[in-house]
Design brief:
Layout lengths: L1 H15 L20 E10 L11 E14 L2 E11 L9 E11 L3 E12 L2 E11 L4 E4 L3 E5 L2 E5 L1 E5 L4 E5 L2 E3 L8
Length: about 180
């Protein structure tokens, strides 16, 4: 399904792109993957679990200002907004901003460059973030800073298991305040 959307986007880009102004018979070099760039594109990684006849829902989605075909099945992008969708639709989705990244068809996505993830009121500042689609796992082995209200926390790395709803931090330090509900 993802290949169909990629093929459709490439077809529309080729059909609507600039027309050649060179005379017939002139030798123009054929385009390479570096020559193919698209603007304001949405890319999706769909949930890989069986759906019993229902259409698959996106597990990870990226909207990017600029997308280029890097290799077969890999697209690189700039200025991205991404969403990691919860499986049950009761858990909050994770909203992510990143400077750049790449997505490998049906497998994974990698974000870097000022990565900021938001889960409700919680903000996570990261150097990079990798999404493993099959495992529905977001991870980084680089420093993480978490801010939520008056809580401040730092960690050397993290794992976020979307199915289990677990945020696992490694080598963490900081202050985490539990607020009491007074109602």
């Amino acid at each position: 399904m993802n290949r169909c959307w990629t093929a459709l986007a490439l077809f529309l880009f080729a059909a609507c792109g600039p027309k050649s102004t060179s005379p017939k018979g002139s030798a123009e070099p054929s385009p390479t993957n570096d020559d193919i760039t698209m603007d304001r594109i949405h890319l999706y990684l769909h949930d890989t679990r069986p759906t019993q006849g229902a259409p698959r829902k996106p597990a990870f989605a990226v909207q990017a200002e600029s997308v280029a075909l890097a290799d077969q099945g890999v697209q690189s992008f700039q200025n991205a907004r991404a969403v990691i969708h919860s499986a049950d639709r009761q858990t909050e989705d994770i909203l992510i901003d990143a400077g750049c990244g790449r997505i490998e068809e049906a497998k994974s996505a990698y974000l870097e460059g000022g990565v900021v993830a938001r889960i409700g009121s919680m903000r996570l500042d990261l150097e990079d973030l990798e999404w493993l689609n099959q495992q529905r796992l977001a991870r980084t082995d680089r420093p993480v800073r978490i801010v939520d209200g008056s809580s401040r926390f730092r960690a050397a790395g993290m794992r976020l298991d979307m199915d289990a709803g677990e945020l696992i931090l490694t080598n963490g330090t900081g202050l985490f305040c539990f607020e009491r509900n007074t109602s």
